Amino acid sequence: MSSTTSKPTRRTALAQVQALIAGTQKRFPNESFTLGNTAYTTATLTQALQGLAGALAALSAAHASAKDAGLALLGIEAKVDPLIRDYKRFLLATFSTATQALADFGLQPPKVRKPLTGEQRAVATVKSRATRTARGTTSRKQKLAVKGDVTGVQITPVTLVPASSPPATPAGSAGPLAADPAPTAHAPGGATK
Asked: In this predicted model, what pLDDT tens digit does every residue of 152-168 receive, in sequence order?
């Protein structure tokens, strides 16, 4: 195999090994081989190839099983995660200050927020106002005062043209396709213009 070819998938590799086994049994039913300084018979070569085929098949089955298990887990998590979230909230509300009781459930009490000092609150207010100004954020009432000005708009009404029916042809006439072709002028010498 050259270095430019990519590694085959497991399904392709399994098919290749199975083809090698079938071809060996068909073309060399009772032969001896020396491959890589090791002597093989058709039976020992086939046995080695079947071992690889079995391992590839087992790996594919394990991957399929793992995929199915993963999908089953996602389905169960979708049902149980909201229950766990609600139960944790219940436990935190019930044992809010009982650290040991919460530890029995693997939970920690919520962290107590430290109140801001007057200086920290003033700094936060100034930063908040500066951010609103920099972003151009306005209140709901200020947004209502913003109006767009449009000039030079020309409105064109849309009119629908009624669909007309095709002209009726008399029953005896062959229609426009049977009309005489247009006459052609002939130039001297037999060429058409």
From this structure: 778 888 888 776 666 55
Give dist(CA 41, CA 141) in Å, integer. 91
Full-model pTM: 0.44
Boundaries of every domain in the chain: 10-104
For residues 92 and 101, give the distance between their C-alpha atoms in angstroms, rounded to a whole number.
10
- In terms of Cβ atoms closer than 10 Å to its own Cβ (0-12, 13-18, 19+), residue 45 is buried
73 C-beta neighbours (distance < 10 Å), count: 10
pLDDT digits (tens, 9 = 90+) for 67-88: 999 999 999 999 999 999 999 9
Alpha carbon distances (Å) from 69 to 63, 72, 77, 104, 131? 10, 5, 12, 30, 49
DSSP structural state of residue 3: T
Specify burial of residue 16 (Cβ count, 10 A radius: 0-12, 13-18, 19+): middle
